[in-house]
Amino acid sequence: MAKKTINNDVLLANIIKGIEEVKGSDIDILDLREIDTAVCDYFIICNGNSNTQVNAIVNSIQKTVSKDLKDKPWHVEGSDVAEWVLMDYVHIVVHVFQKHIREYYNIESLWGDAKITKIENKY
């Protein structure tokens, strides 16, 4: 049985919803589709204030996407330390950071050619 494909826009919206439900902050969407060497179509980057909140964001994303789209990440890495958790949904990769770790690695600057969309916090 073939796996159904999920529209990137719908998946993006569900990931953002999951982040916002537990007050993840500084949400950026990097559109990588025009970059030849990109490994996926989008990066979503956000941060939490502690390892507890980082794990809460990751869990909220997984729960929201699973409930609404019946999908799960292909791979999740970093949950044990929860300073930088990477969630791989194949076409969309989510990076959930603690604020100081995000500032240190500054991965947005590594993808300077990407179109960046900032999502305003709703709280």
UniProtKB/TrEMBL annotation:
Keyword hit for Transmembrane helix: no
GO molecular function: ribosomal large subunit binding
One Gene Ontology biological process: negative regulation of translation
Entries under InterPro entries matching the protein: Iojap/RsfS/C7orf30 (IPR004394), NT_sf (IPR043519)
Subcellular location: Cytoplasm
Keyword tRNA processing found: no
Alphabetized NCBIfam families for the sequence: rsfS_iojap_ybeB
Protein name, as recorded: Ribosomal silencing factor RsfS
Species for this entry: Flavobacterium aquariorum
Origin organism lineage: Bacteria, Pseudomonadati, Bacteroidota, Flavobacteriia, Flavobacteriales
Gene symbol of the encoding locus: rsfS
